[in-house]
Design brief:
Elements lengths: L1 H10 L2 E5 L6 E5 L5 E6 L1 H11 L1
Antiparallel strand pairs: 1-2, 2-3
Length: about 55
């Protein structure tokens, strides 16, 4: 799951990492590392990736 999210996020200039809680992720900008979203599920990550494309 994480690898698939990262592949699509890379195209949008983002990076997805696993959060401390299982099943949740954090999203950062790949260029400067600024935090975009924290503790979001996979559906929310996909929405953020579409938003940043």
């Amino acid at each position: 799951m994480l690898e698939d999210l990262n592949k699509s996020a890379k195209k949008a200039g983002l990076h997805v990492a696993a959060a401390k809680k299982s099943g949740l992720f954090s999203v950062r900008k790949a260029k400067n590392g600024k935090l975009i979203a924290k503790n979001v599920d996979a559906d929310e990550v996909e929405k953020l990736i579409k938003k940043h494309k």
